[in-house]
Each structure stands twice: as C-alpha cells, then as structure tokens.
Amino acid sequence: MxxxxxxxxxxGSNGIAVENEEALKQTVNVAKLIFTPTNALMLLAVLGNxxxxxxxxxxxxxxxxxxxxxxxILFIIVLFFETSYIRNFIxxxxxx
Length: 96
Known about the structure:
The chain is mostly helical. The chain has 3 helices and no strands.
C-alpha cells in the first residue's frame, strides 16, 4: 500500500514549483503518512472479508473474482481522484 501511495504522491507533486525543495519533500512525506492507512482501509478490509468468505465457503470463487475485479476498478478510479486531491493538499500546505 505504501508503494502505491508513494507513486500517487509522486504523480501528484510532479510539477509543483516551490522555492524550498525540502518543504515539498516533507509535505509529500506527510501526505504519504496520511493516505497510506486510508488506502489500506479502503482496499484491504474488503479483500480480507472476501477471502475469508471464500475460505469459509460462504462465497463462491466465481462471485469472489467478480467482486475483486469490481473492487480493483473502483480503487483505480479512487486513486485517480486521490492524485488530484493530494496535489491540492500539497499545494495548500506549502502556501501556509
């Protein structure tokens, strides 16, 4: 999850003109610390629940695979919006 969030933060912070590169670096690190647990909660909770249901034979593997595909598509869409949000977050923090 940290790797995915790091990539999103790198994309979001790309092209932000700042006078102090150290401030940008620290702000990106804070964004990673904030958004990594958020992303993990969104994705890993549903994944764990789905795998648990498959293991307990409550959910068929075919339905589970469809659920996982939908989850991954939704997560990619969320990451797209999160990139913009992180960019605005970093810009806002640096303007303070």
